[in-house]
Design brief:
heterodimer; A: about 280 residues; mainly alpha; 12 helices; B: about 300 residues; alpha/beta; Rossmann fold; Alpha-Beta Plaits; 2 domains; 6-stranded mixed sheet; 4-stranded antiparallel sheet; about 30% helix; elongated; membrane (chain A); transmembrane helix (chain A); transmembrane (chain A)
Chain lengths: ~280, ~300
């Protein structure tokens, strides 16, 4: 039991709240999970490996191609192959979702917000750290996929150099689609708050919706298709000057706006969904 | 003394159910205040509202005059252990605490200090997922202490602790209160509070039942009684009954006597030349007072045993 006259309560001396401290905390949280290193490393290797294998398959086909066919080939299909990048988008999106749902399902979110009641700042810091890490990985994967695949193809006169028109744009889009997918995942994770359901939502949004709106009969179906991140990425990779990708190909300007809009809306969704709800 | 935690007309509704209903109480510094109530009484909901994790439907709650969500950083103001499971099992205790410390601008050394204080230094590098419940409770207490805060909240902190751990926690709470801090500890077991708290806030079904000192609360229980042991039990019982007492045999050589003080019982026995082997007054059990007061508000009552 305490005495009748307890000591005066210790005075609170507090340094100014700095946003950089929140960034550092989120950085520590990200890398202190073994699954982060494994998951991101494995995901990057799988994507790069799939593209190298696609390049090897075309490399084997080059002897059967005419000189004109070689000259007119769309060599980025081996650098940024659809199957590898669809897997990478789902991987990045699920990873982004898990950085949010992981806090909810474990209950860590309560510890986090009891320590930092400024919830919007915490989520903003998490968004910045996750997207910066994913951008770095996206850039490494895009560069390795491009230079690896084109090096293989160049062995038999195929492939393009980095200075080929449209290549820098395709590489930039391929690097960026990784953080964009992650941020979309974080938005869905903040809305749904359950890991499995959020992962399904990521797959539906990033992979299945473009299939659902793949018709060309109605303009509005094409419009919706073009407004999806996967289609925007495809549009940017396909936009090599002088190459024809069909009359329904997505215009470059529109594609960049779509990627920017999805990032912004998803980030705001994450910040405000987490801020408003009970824990 | 200025109240540190001030709860006013606090109400939290989930649909048509009120988890907390018009709750008003204050918690003052320099004391360990027990927060008691049966399961489902609204203790955890109230603690979450104090920490700004849940928004009240109506009413207010302030810590040191401010709503907790108005503070940019919390650890230096309020340290809390809500649920020892509120951690990510994949991280080590050191990484978990380091991230929290960093978010609040707390120096790194403090992490090792609190790990040392709760006895987790040896396990600090291991994944929390492999910890026992008792170790997680210790980690939760380390988290609460991290910011050296003047206000500490603990939700059922003794769960899963071994007897040594329970003793340690009680000592820790008393020490924190003696340092002038506000210590608010919830429990559904009166016996846990009996040796820890000196102030009580008791709730049932989301409403306040009592907010007073432990002694005042104990006095609400059914009166005082005295345990008497004697080899001449039958004779003694007759004498005491004649003297106006109610006598209740406990089996063996002991009687529980109510309605007479220990002094009167001793005098009666002496005058009647009856040998006594033991004469000990018993304070009304807190558990009993708690059960009586909350009997009407128990949310999940087991069918038979009341």
């Amino acid at each position: 039991m305490t005495t009748a006259a307890p000591a005066p309560a210790p005075a609170v001396t507090e340094p100014r709240a700095r946003f950089t401290d929140l960034l550092a905390a989120e950085w520590t949280k990200l890398w202190s999970l073994r699954s982060t290193r494994w998951g991101l490393g494995l995901g990057a290797l799988i994507t790069i490996g799939l593209n190298a294998m696609a390049a090897k398959a075309d490399y084997d086909l080059i002897p059967q191609m005419t000189a004109q066919q070689v000259a007119e080939s769309f060599w980025l299909r081996d650098a940024f192959s659809q199957n590898s990048y669809f897997i990478a988008m789902i991987g990045a999106g699920s990873f982004g979702a898990l950085t949010i749902t992981g806090e909810y399902t474990t209950g860590l979110i309560r510890t986090t917000f009891a320590a930092v009641p400024a919830r919007r700042s915490v989520v903003t810091a998490k968004l910045l750290v996750v997207s910066a890490v994913m951008l770095a990985i996206g850039a490494v994967v895009a560069a390795a996929s491009f230079f690896g695949s084109q090096a293989i193809l160049s062995g038999r006169g195929g492939g393009w150099s980095f200075s080929h028109p449209g290549v820098p744009q395709a590489m930039a889009a391929s690097a960026l689609i990784i953080p964009v997918s992650a941020v979309v995942g974080m938005g869905l994770g903040a809305l749904i708050r359950h890991s499995a359901t959020a992962t399904v939502a990521v797959i539906v949004t990033l992979l299945m919706l473009p299939e659902l709106f793949s018709g060309h009969t109605y303009t509005w179906v094409i419009d919706i298709n073009h407004a999806l991140p996967r289609s925007a990425w495809t549009g940017l990779v396909d936009a090599i000057p002088g190459m024809w990708h069909g009359r329904y190909a997505e215009p470059v300007g529109e594609a960049w706006i779509v990627l920017a809009a999805w990032s912004l809306v998803s980030a705001l969704t994450a910040v405000f969904a987490v801020d408003r709800r009970d824990l | 003394m200025i109240p540190v935690i001030e709860v006013k007309n606090l109400t939290k509704r989930y649909g048509s159910t009120a988890a907390v209903n018009g709750l008003t109480f204050t918690v003052r510094p320099g004391h360990v205040t027990g927060f008691l109530g049966p399961n489902g009484a609204g203790k955890s909901t109230t603690l979450r509202m104090i920490l700004g994790l849940n928004d009240p439907t109506s009413g207010t709650v302030t810590v040191d005059g401010r709503g907790f969500r108005d503070r940019p950083r919390g650890l230096r103001h309020v340290g809390a252990l809500l649920d020892a499971g509120d951690v990510h099992g994949g991280r080590s205790a050191r990484a978990h605490l380091s991230a929290l410390a960093r978010s609040n601008g707390i120096p790194r050394d403090r992490v090792d200090e609190v790990l040392q204080e709760v006895g987790l230094t040896g396990a600090a590098g291991r994944r929390i997922g492999g910890y026992s419940l008792g170790m997680k409770q210790r980690l939760g207490i380390a988290t609460a202490l991290l910011g050296d805060p003047p206000v500490l909240l603990f939700d059922e902190p003794l769960n899963g602790l071994d007897p040594e751990g329970v003793l340690w926690v009680r000592g820790l709470f008393r020490r924190l209160a003696a340092e002038g801090r506000t210590v608010f500890v919830s429990s559904h077991l009166m016996s846990e509070m009996e040796n820890t708290a000196d102030q009580l806030v008791v709730i049932g079904r989301g409403e306040l039942i009592a907010a007073e000192s432990l002694a005042e609360f104990a006095a609400r229980g059914t009166g005082l009684s005295v345990a008497v042991r004697s080899p001449e039990l039958t004779a003694l019982a007759a004498v005491l009954t004649a003297g106006g007492a109610t006598v209740h045999p406990d089996g063996g050589e002991t009687l529980t006597v109510s309605g007479l003080s220990a002094a009167s019982i001793g005098e009666l026995a002496f005058r009647n030349r009856i040998v006594l082997h033991e004469l000990s007054p018993r304070a009304a059990s807190l558990e009993q007072a708690f059960m009586e007061l909350t009997a009407d508000s128990v949310e999940y009552l087991a069918g038979e045993a009341r």
